[in-house]
Amino acid sequence: MKKITGGVTAPKGFTAAGIHCGIRNNQTKKDLALLYSEVPCNAAAVYTQNKVYGAPITVTKANIADGMAQAMICNSGNANTCNADGVEKAEMMCEMTAKALGISPKDIIVASTGVIGMTLNIEPIASGIPKLAPILSKEGHADAVEAIMTTDTKPKEEAYEIEIGGKTVSIGAMAKGSGMIHPNMATMLGFLTTDCAITTPMLQKALKLAVDDTFNMVSVDGDTSTNDMVSIMANGLAENPVIDSEGADFDAFLLVVKEICTSMAKKIAGDGEGATKLVECSVHHAPDTKLAKAISKSIITSSLTKAAMFGADANWGRILCAIGYTEGDFAVDTISVTISSPKGEILVCEKGAGVPFDEDKAKEILLQEEIHIDVDMQQGDGEATAWGCDLTYDYVKINGDYRT
Amino acid sequence: MKKITGGVTAPKGFTAAGIHCGIRNNQTKKDLALLYSEVPCNAAAVYTQNKVYGAPITVTKANIADGMAQAMICNSGNANTCNADGVEKAEMMCEMTAKALGISPKDIIVASTGVIGMTLNIEPIASGIPKLAPILSKEGHADAVEAIMTTDTKPKEEAYEIEIGGKTVSIGAMAKGSGMIHPNMATMLGFLTTDCAITTPMLQKALKLAVDDTFNMVSVDGDTSTNDMVSIMANGLAENPVIDSEGADFDAFLLVVKEICTSMAKKIAGDGEGATKLVECSVHHAPDTKLAKAISKSIITSSLTKAAMFGADANWGRILCAIGYTEGDFAVDTISVTISSPKGEILVCEKGAGVPFDEDKAKEILLQEEIHIDVDMQQGDGEATAWGCDLTYDYVKINGDYRT
Fold this sequence. Notes:
L-amino peptidase D-ALA esterase/amidase; alpha+beta; homodimer; 404 residues; Ubiquitin-like (UB roll); 2 domains
């Protein structure tokens, strides 16, 4: 597996573009992204579990029910959620995009992120789409990833190359976070592209498996957004033998999908609203994987643990507390907790009780930008990792400010 | 039902005291409380569901297994949790208290609140208890309630009088919050006293029913503490006909227990760490009570909703989002949301979608110290109310500061 440049346009046949069309008032912020494959793609997606969900989710689900897509249109600045005319507007976005590209509206993935409950102004999108189509390019990935950002402070993209069946297969991704976002809420979005030849069912399987261990293990503030979606389009231009069942090729493909999703997940967590640091929590030797996942997520979601991370405080009692209130059947008196960063590692709790440790050393470790919390339960072979961030003044500021 | 003064010593036969014994360095902060009944009491308690729980919980559970207690000793400043010698120390506290009062150590309720994972220094408690016993008095409730406070900014106590079986029955309570507390975590504690004559099973039943609708409907930060406990002691001195089954007398008693627990719950929520306002959320016409409870708690626990309350932002999308990610089976397209305070009320969402409203009026409503969110689901007769507070810079400050 080799990291390459190019983001979502790294795989053969994909082009992208991003512009400011006018949904946002700030003319320096791009707000409309287009992603296109020169040939039809097998497509798969996973969606938010929130019962309140955006109109673009309704429309995308319908459009890729046949397992196919060829383009993706995404605006930022308005989530098109909780609007009476939301589905109609999302369908209009597909029709406009299809017309500009000369393809079917049913082959479009549509996404929106931004304010909810505010009617989507279709005018800027209607005038923007015809401008986007002619400027689609291999270099456009950088503009596209900018256009899907909301409170993100950094663009999030990545690409990898692997060998499958003697052919070089590429996979690219772009994503956005970063919490439910000012002013109302928004969305975690991930768009993956690949030139791998793979059937839709296997594509869906790979995406689901990867997302469960990556995007679904991220929490910025415990609030499940209404518009979350991760999609993948596979156009087959790598000409590898089609992956149509499990086996070595599928495993290789899954590995790279997981790798790119892990990278996106970490970028989203580390760029959480107001965050000053990424917190990675791994649970080892849990009774089973499900509990390992639940416990690692419980820790990175705990407001008190997050505030302690902000304060660089090795406050292991809060970690143990968050373990203790996780639902499930497990013992606490075998648990040890280690905290580490590039500055070193330190054992803070053993057999469920505190051990003496050097507070100055702990503080030095916790002042870094990427912190690891390792929990060893010594009760089985369940393993999981979750990613979060610290809780800061800026989180409160970003989310407490009056909408303007 | 009549509100009276006197807190936990309002009922006949109860006395209390509180002093600074030296667990805390700050000599102006009382840190040891004693509560005593001149005759043995029927006793009941409910405890944290966290699998990591304090040694005092272990000891109290054992002591009141026979349904009896006569005194309560509580220190603040150290939670005596996650300590290898915790149970031993908690038992020592009971023995010392019993000796000072001339009763059995098995008739003591013991509680601790403060730092976890730090060995409890028994010396100040050993020297404090013999000082406390001689100064027990009717006026002592005010010192006792101060002594159990940690980051609480206000003492929390209340007392009521009712008629049961032709006799005047009193009930008193003191409680503390207010989140899991600096520097590690702490505890929600509630201590109720009554001179009502009631059997232990009926006392336990009344407490459980009341706590489920009150203390258990409070969330300051979603973190379930390790030391939470609510206890009640009933000494029978009111000489009412003993309540030994359900009926009119039990209903009257339950009503006043619920009232006093509601009052304590609201005081704890409103005095949550860093809070500037109390947020009360009522869900009406839910499919059932369980869902009504889950949804109201989901709303008051949502970090984004809490931050919006801090910013006086009528950000109903976050409320709908928190409803949507509540587990359970319900529709969202019939839901309306109203926000109110002493400054008025305003409908912000109807049939699951936004309605136009006056933002200035909404802001005026939300700038008050007590905010009500009413959610009408129009799907059944489930009703519930939960209490929380806003998420503020001070919450982050209190919990992010390095332990000193």
